[in-house]
Amino acid sequence: MNQAEQLRMMVYASLLAALTAAGAYIAIPIGPIPIVLQNLFIFLTGLLLGSKWGVASVAVYLLAGASGLPVFAGGTGGLGRLLGPTGGYLLGYLPAVYLIGFISEKMNHRRFYDALAVVCGTIIIYACGIAWLKTITGMTLTKTLAVGMYPFLPGDVLKIVAAVIIAKSLRPVIGQR
Amino acid sequence: MADLTAFSYHPGRSFLHLLDVRFKIIFLILISLTGMQADPPALCLLTFLFLCLIKSSRLSLISILKELRYFLVLLFFVLIARALSTPGTPVFEFKLLSISRQGLYDGILICWRLALVVLLGLIFVSTTRPSEIRTAVAWFLKPFPFIPGKKVATMIGLIMRFVPVILAQAKETSDAQRARGIENRKNPIYRLVKLAVPLIFKTFQNANNLAVAMEARCYSENRTDPDLSSKKNDWIAFFFVICLCILVVEI
Fold this sequence. Notes:
Oligomer: heterodimer
Largest interface: A-B, 63 and 74 residues
Number of helices of chain A: 7
Structural class of chain B: mainly alpha
Distance between the termini of chain B: 42 Å
Shape of chain A: globular
Number of domains of chain B: 2
Number of strands of chain B: 2
Number of strands of chain A: 2
Number of domains of chain A: 1
Helix content of chain B: over 70%
Helix content of chain A: over 70%
Strand order of the largest sheet of chain B: 1-2
Number of helices of chain B: 10
């Protein structure tokens, strides 16, 4: 990878991290719970950038948030958010993006495997998020699932389908691959 | 950017504004970590200290509370969950629901700790320039051989620059689509795709222009960043924070 290419990937990685940050504020009002775009952009980070740059993008996003810049949902940043009740979901983005990028790259971006990769990523995000939410609130597992996962699943299915379609139509724009 | 950083940097010349950023980040981490284990007396002490700091840096308490409103809702939920799910002597009973004394105590304790840590983060952000935070992050990453600190700092800078652009673009795109009657479409996947594709496409074009512009201006990682210098005050504050942390753990 030459210098210009490196620079371009760096700008793209920052851009997707910024989309993730902005995604918390962009919602599509359908049904009772508006669909927030944040994890859609996390999926796209993995699918479009691949494992290496995807992880870099999410790591920088989390670092920016941890050092106090207001990039997390609700406009506040800082360690408190990572330690707070929803911190598990945020930390779960990191392994999730790696896995999504890895599977998608290995399988040559075929549509079915892209979908599979995103489903695996979602499972990881929820595993981390639920585990942490359960420790903080001290609820039973069934209760934690009822508040921390089930209400969001329908939205997630939509986002998974959308992410695969979007990734397919945007890959030519990004250029390589 | 209006939504995102309603609570951003407030210029000033108070004690907190003048502290070195690197020290402030260390303080933030130390107090956050010890604060998570503090007991009520120590929490009272911390709350009092934070209120003094807010006062001395001329921040408005009302706008801070406004900024924290979503987080407070979240905390309230944690409190309820704790109170309902911990077994113990009941304080209040209604059919199947029972709120136990231990649960209530635990819940309040945890919420208090989290609220203080987030409050501290807000105080930090509103007294520190984003560019200084960026430089300090690069400084902290310097000792790690595999992490390019300067590159990370540039990326953080880019994120902060892109976010308002993206929000403006998202508003423009969704307005344009509403004008064309997208609300008649009930298929949510269609709407997701039709919002996200133009949004990302346009922002990628912007990003491409930016990459070309950076290249044309001979971007390199050897840039001049804001100067970081530690003064006597920083070390005095450091000493006090260490004492405070020991005190908080001990109480």
